[in-house]
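Let us work through a complete example step by step.
Step 1: write down the sequence.
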Amino acid sequence: MIEQPIDAIDGVLVHAPVNVAGRVGSYALTYRTGRTDSAFVIGGVRRNNGED
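Step 2: predict the structure and record it as tokens.
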């Protein structure tokens, strides 16, 4: 599920839902000039209690 887009001065910001820690897993900022900045998590830290 994607959160509601936010209009910014430079363009439009869209992000994944905010988790309980206040973080998002991905976002995209699309500038009015056509450029896009985006980021997302690849992999991540997992707690596995010593198991592989």
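Step 3: interpret the result. DSSP finds no helices and four strands in the chain.
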